[in-house]
Write the structure tokens for this entry.
Amino acid sequence: MSTFSESATTALALIVSFDTGLWTVVGRSLAVSATACAIACGIGLVAGAWLAVARFAGRDAVLTVLNTLLALPSVVVGLLVYLMLSRTGPLGFLGWMFSFKAMVLAQVVLVVPVVTALTRQAVEDAERSHGEQLRSLGAHTALRGLLLAWDERYALLTVLIASFGRAISEVGAVMIVGGNIDGFTRVMTTAIALETSKGDLPLALALGLILLAVVLLLNALISALRRWRERLDGGVAAPAAVLAS
């Protein structure tokens, strides 16, 4: 394909014809990112809620490290996971190298700091508003963190959606530990990089359009969730104002 219009036309044809190779890659990419986000959110939500309310020596240092991990390059994560899963690494006995599990592990390492940091910030803001009241009722640190996290559950849903967007757009780590093997570990981002280098622009463009559609859907969900929460808060505040008057 020599022109953009021809490549775009072929790309759209691949999408609407439900090309098997194309949608297999898409399905694998979604499965890897969804699995990684489920694991990472289970860890990050608990850790972030606890960090928000706990006070201990060295907390500032922990938060500094956490904030640093937010900017951790994906290729560095891929290298570290590769070293851990290699035959001579501490986790080499698992035999996960160049597999679905290896890609999930790499994305978990990338997403956990994001979920933890954003959860910590949301719950800590709630702690400033309601923490004293919960402490006066005898809620200990862990319980207070869980209650505040539940109170901020709508904001935390936004965190979950954002973390999925972070995972599915990742390329460096999954290429290193997954190997970009056709039919086994090839996902959307690694396939785009490969097909572009091969000159197969229609397939790369088709995958790019689908990836953009996923990201657009995630942003639309975040916006819809925010508007719904604002309407919900407004609906609760209005009756309260009427009763107060």
